Structures are given as C-alpha cells and as structure tokens.
Amino acid sequence: MMLALEMYRSPAKFLAAKAVGGRIPGILTGPAAPLRLVTINEPKAERPGWARIRPILSGICGSDLGMVTGSTKLYFSAVVSMPFVPGHEVVGELLDDCEDLPKGTRVVMDSVLTCAARGVEPCENCVSGNTNRCDRITVGHVAPGLQTGFCQDTGGGWGNVLVAHRSQLYAVPDGLSDERAVLVEPLAGAVHAALRAKITPGQSVLVSGAGAVGLFATLALRELTQAGRITVVAKHAKQRELARAFGASDVVAPDEVFRGVRRSTGAFRLKPDFGAGEFLLGGVDVAVDAVGSKDSIDTVLRVTKAGGRVVLSGMPASGADLSPVWFRELEVTGTYASAREEPNGRPAFETALELAGRAPLDGIVGARYPLYRWREALDHAHSAGRLGTVKVAFDVRAS
Amino acid sequence: MSRPGFVLEVDDRTPPLLVHNGEGFLLERFPLGTRVVYPPEALPAVRDVDEAIQSALLNPIESEPLPDLLRAGMRLTIAFDDISIPLPPMKKPDIRQRIIEAVLELAARAGVDDVELISANALHRRLTPNELRDIVGERVFRSFFPDGKLYNFDAEDAANLTHLGQTRHGEDVEISKRAAESDLLVYVNVNLVAMDGGHKSTSIGLASYKSLKHHHNSHTMIHSRSFMDHKRSKMHESAWRMGEILTQHVKVFQIETTLNNDIFGGPLEFLQKREWEWSVKDQASMLGTKRALAAAPGKLRHKIFTDVRSNYGLTGVHAGKIEPVHDKTLENVHRQHLVEVQGQSDVAIMGVPFIGPYNVNSVMNPILAACMGLGYYFNSYRGNPIVRKDGAVILYHPVDYEFSQLHHPSYVDFFEEVLAESTDPATIEAKFEKQYAEDPWYIHLYRTSYAYHGVHPFYMWYWISHALDHCGDIVWVGANRKTVERMGFRSASTLQDALEMVSHSVGRSPSITYLHNPPHLLADVR
Ligand SMILES: [Zn+2]
Ligand SMILES: [Zn+2]
After folding, report:
1. B436 → chain A, closest CA residue
2. What is the pLDDT confidence band of residue B186, given thresholds at 50, 70 and 90?
3. CA dist., res. B117 & res. B137, Å (int)
4. Residue A264, SS3?
5. Percent of chain B's residues with pLDDT above 70
6. C or N terminus of chain B, fewer CB within 10 Å?
C-alpha cells in the first residue's frame, strides 16, 4: 500500500469545480475538488522493460491545475483512465533494475505513454521519433492515458510509487540536484516548443506568459535558436526579472503588448471601429503563447506579422478570434510534450538535461509541500506568479 | 513708455506673487529675500506695420531690393516659421501673413508664376489646413492651398529632399528639394526668442533627420550655453556651418520680425503686470479668472487657454542677407527680453505655463512640461545660468499623465519605454534614438496625420540635458508624483516642502531667484 493523491471521477464535483473555475482557489481545493489523499495499492511492474520508481520531487504543472479546477478541456476525457494519480514532472529513484539502468539510479521521465511502453507495434509517429504524437495512447497492455499522471495503471508522481517503462527514462547525472532534475520534463517541453518554432537567425519572437512554460520557453529559445529580439509578456515583478535572466531582450506588461511589439518591430497599429480588437500590420516573426487563455491567444495572433508563425504552447481556451490567422496568413503550430527525436536529431530530454545543468535555475522550485499539504500546495501553485514562485513541487519522500 | 526688466527682493510688504502652473496659476508667498526677476514691459510697437514691411523689402541689408531679385520665369519659394512660434499664437492678421502678402504682391508685379509656400516645420507635426490658414491668411490660403502650392515640409519625403553637401565638420546638409532648386528662397521668420532665426530658419526648418541629427543630439545640446546665445551654442554653430553650405547653393532672402512682450490682453492682462501694481480691476479679473478656472471642467479650462491669442506689437522687421539681418533681430530681442541679474543663486524657481512650442492646440505632456521648464526657461540666460552649478531648480506644473495620441504618439512610448530604462540623455540616444527615428509607424503618422516625428521626444530630452548636468536637485511643486519620478525628478506638495527637500544640497537659507515668466525674459547673469 502507498499514500497518493488520486483524481477520481465525480461528475458533480467536476462540474462544481468548473463552476467556481479557478476564481476561488480556497473553495476549489476544498470539498469540491475531485482530488483526494488515499492509501491505495502500489502499481505493478510485471512486464519486461517496466520498473518501479520512488518519486523524490514531483512538480505541479499548469495542466494538473487545469484538471483539478475543471478548466481542462473535456477533449481529454477520452484519453485518461480514472481514477488516476497525477504527477508527470518527476525526479525519482529506481526501485528495481530497469534493463541497463540499475536499481537506485536517479531518473527523470518522459511521461508520454507511447507504443513502446504499451507493447504494441510502433505507430508511424513513434517510428519517426515523433513520440509525443503517438496514435496508440488508448490501447495495449496499459490502461488508456496519454501520459503517466493521467493513467490508471502507471500511478503518478503525486504518489509514493509509480511504474515506468525503460523507453520513458533518462538517468540523471550525479552533479544535477533534485531541484533542477524535477524541471527536466517541463524544460523538455520548452525545448520542443523552441525547436518547433523553426526560428531563423535574427527573427523576433514574442513569448506571451511568464509562468514556468513561458520562462522555460524563453530560456530554450535563447539557448537553442538564434532568435534576435525576444519580448516576454510578464505580469509580476519576479517574472520580469527571471524573464530577463532567461534571455528576454525586453519585457512588457500584458496591457503593453501592442505598444511594446509595435515599437520593437516598427509595425503599424490599427484600431478598428466598433470595439473590435486592435491589431498590428507587421509585428513579430514568431509568437509563442504560453498561457492558453483567450486573451493571450487573441493577442499573439494580432501581433504576429503576416506570414508569421504562432506557436500554441499552453493548452488553448476556446473563443479566440481566428480572423488574423486568415487575414494575415499565419501559420499556427501546436506543441505538446516533447519528442524522442527533435529537429536537432536528439531526444528533447537529453537537451533538457544539459539545459538543467547550466541554466540559472537555482530557486526556481520555490516551494515544496508534503502530499498531505496538497490543498496549500495547489493553492500556492495557482497563485504562483503573484507570489513570485515559478514551480511548486511535492516533496514526496517527506510525505 | 516701457520699463526695463525689474529685479525685486521679497520683503514683508511684498504681496503673494503669481506663478504659472499649467492651465492655471497660483499666488505664492516666497521666502523673504527671494529675488524676483520680472520680464521687461512691452516695447513700443511699430505704428505702421505694412509700411515697415515695405521698407524692409525695398531697403534690405546687404542685399539688392526684393523687386530686383524677382523676374518672370523664376522659381520662387517662400518658407515660413510654423505654429510653434509665437507663443501664444498671435491675433489675426499674423505678421507672416502680412509679409507673405507683400512678397507675393511684388512677385506678381514682376510676373513670377512659379511660387510655392512651405511651412518650415522640420520634424514638427504638420499644420492642419486651418492652422496654415491662420498663419498665411484667407486670401493666400485660397490661392495656393487647393493646388498644393502651400504645404507642410515633409522631412521624410526622400524624393523631395536634396543633399547639398557636407560642412567642414562632416555634417550633412539635406533640405527641401523645392527650396534647394529655387532661384530665390524667401524666408519669413517670427522671432519671439533669441534661439530662433538666422541660419536656424532654413538649415533646420527645412532639413531632414539626416541633417538635423548632427546638432540635435545630447552632446551638442549639452554644450550649448545657451540656446539663446547663438555664439555660445554648439547647435547654432552647426546650423551656421550648414547655412554656409546652403547659401552657396541657394539664394536666400531672409525676413525676420521681432515682437514685443504684449502677450496677455483683455481680462488676462493682470498676468503681465507686477502684482503690487495690480489695480482693483486687475485684482477682480485675477480672482474671477482663478475662480472660473477652479470651477471649469478640464476640457473647458483647456479651451480657455488654447484660445488665448496675443496682441503682440511688432518691434522690428529686417530683410536681406541672413547674418546681418539676424544681428538686427537679436538687438531687438535683447532689447525686449534682457534683464540684468547680478550673480547666480542657489535655487531657481520657475512656473511652467500652459503652452510651449510643441503643444499649440494640444496637450502639454510630462516631457514637454520638463522641456519647457528645464530646456526653455532654464536656458533663458546669457552668460551664466541663473542657478549656480549643483544648485536646485524648483518648478511648478501639475505634470499630469496626459498625452495627445494624435500629436505625440512617440512621446507616450518614450515615456513608457525609454524613460523606464534610463533618463540619461547619452544612454537614451545610443540605445533608442535611431529606432524611434526610423520607426515606420511614426514616420507614417508624421507624414499623413498630425504627429510630431518619432524622434522628437528625444530632442526634448536632449534639450534639458544641460539642466540635468548643471543642477543638483530638480523638484516639482504640486506635480503628479509618478510622472515626475519616471523622469528622474522629485515632487513636493508645497514650496516649503520643496525647499526642505533641497536643503541638504543648498542649505537652510539658500539664495533664491524666481523667474517671473511668461512674458518671456532673458536673464543676463553677470
Ligand atoms: Zn506538464
Ligand atoms: Zn505510437
């Protein structure tokens, strides 16, 4: 038996959570939350290639919060299996030998449950290394679930034990602290987003949002591409400071985006009549939405130059106005998780491990909570930006 | 009969003194011993203005009479100063109208057909058709404007600029192509302050950014002591060098006019009188105006002030060769504005009024308020600044966060983006100027709307760099704390607080000078 946080199916609670939808985190993490702390059976690692992992630190991701608050798209309901233990940003220790990795190895985990993990013939995407696009995430010998942390069979990082397949694991170099290693999964996502942005040397980039996704995207863009000016939209003082430290050329407040981008790119700013949103003629070459809100998407679509690229890195809300995509012939690209073979020919996790070693990431894990303090932990994560925290994590061993 | 400038020391019989404070004024009690410098009273005006103009055109200085320069088939261009002077704008008819009409009459008589009129606005905003009409008058406007023969200079119209060469200092001289290719360029100037006129008229008024950047930069401007003294102003030295090149290519007939200090008439006449000489009627109008302003909503108050039109009497009109004409002009300007002041003081106090050269019919935004106080007034000296090195300047203006998006779009961005990063003119220049100067949106608004050129706020900021360099403390009384702090200054709620704040650098009983303008004065600090 083990202690774990469990997400369980409770349509009433899901709806209740959705109704208060992130507005009142106190209530949300109160009785209405579709999450509970339970003692359950450990997941089993009986098939070849599978091993148990004891998490050390497990991050709280925006998608976890979205799920708990009910703002996550129902789109996902078909690709998860309830109940499940959330947590896909994990640094942990192998409890069993796992092929070439001996028991005791510190590992991080690519949470996508691909054909390899499911023991099925690899699909076309898995063959080509685009593992995050795997088409078989509901079949095979593992319960449906797009990732560890959304799957009934594997357990997740917010519990004392989870199981993972060798194809998901990367050994953590000795010199890399747990606090840095727990960031490798989101960093891998940022590596993927940065490379998906296909930036040519000198191109201007806007990153909308300076939470963990936006900040890591900024870091990856600066480290892995030859982007010219990188403008980051940040609301809070600490975010502004970090954005600069991670490579932003300039930082603008959300209500300053149009002015700031217009200025830095020498674009023309148009304000249509009748209350329609303003937009730029000209603008950045590439925009990365790292928020997912309607406002953020509307903004990035309106400040990207004609023929430019918009990268959706946050899970998008509905209701954004797509007219700029049509009128400005924008190329809109999604980025989800990360791939085993990125455009630079390597797994995103390898690149991310290197980044985690050299980037200025001290203090990025700003708060650690034992599992039984989960309400405070989620509340803190929910207001992280305002509180000057980038990443809140569960200290699973302290639980 | 006029009286010269007047210096008074505040004693216990001195009434509260009027201080301009944006769209309003205050009555302030100054500490005993404060030295108050009043502008000289208006000089007597020329009685027959038309006659004076004729005489200047027919008996020019070091030049053939204008009729002798005019012949059929020639290209004649008349350029004139834009709306930035005089301040406030003058009652109709504008002196420029009367001169332009006189020139056009002579041209018509000589059979000149090819005439164009250009507002020499350099990087200032375009004048609206109504504003052009106010300057040149209805008749001229109707004859030239519809055919596109009366227009604003466009410093961004590359096809209509001509590069005349470089000065011996490597400065580019690039001006209006039409002016450069004219057989005669007649320049019609209004001189309200000693900064204007001379080679500044053509070499700056009709020049492009490429040309202007050689002297409108922080280095040149910090080394101009002062702008009111063209022999000690690096900016003017540069303009004069450019003028040499320009006049090698183009024949210029310069017409300069000087105006007296008669700027507030009617119910506002008390504004240009000395307080202890206010009659009962003056006191009544002062109280009435003060009450009306206090009661008026912002829009109305703004209108009351933007509607001010001044009487100005003409004190001289001279025509001919640029340099000797300008010498005459300066004589007249100095005669009107110079006030002899003995020695510098620890503190200078100045009220910033509702209008400056760059907010005519518009809003005085924080940068313009700073420029008006620390560029314009601070530099209104000959010899030495009124305040000693490392002394303090105390200014009055509300400095509200208020910008005209129509006229000053790049100012908003300058305030938000540039000043957030640095207030140091040289740093700002190196990091941001080029980008603002070349921003296509600002250029578009400058060319097609009524916006100042994107680089203009930089010039305003460079203009105050001498004051920033010279003064130890700069404090604004009654100003918006946030806007003032963004510009690197401090704000105080009262004069007493301001003096308290500067006491660490100037002591508890500093010597204080209050420059009681407008009307304009030029402190001749000995
Ligand atoms: Zn995640
Ligand atoms: Zn697959």
Report:
1. A263
2. very high
3. 13
4. helix
5. 98
6. N
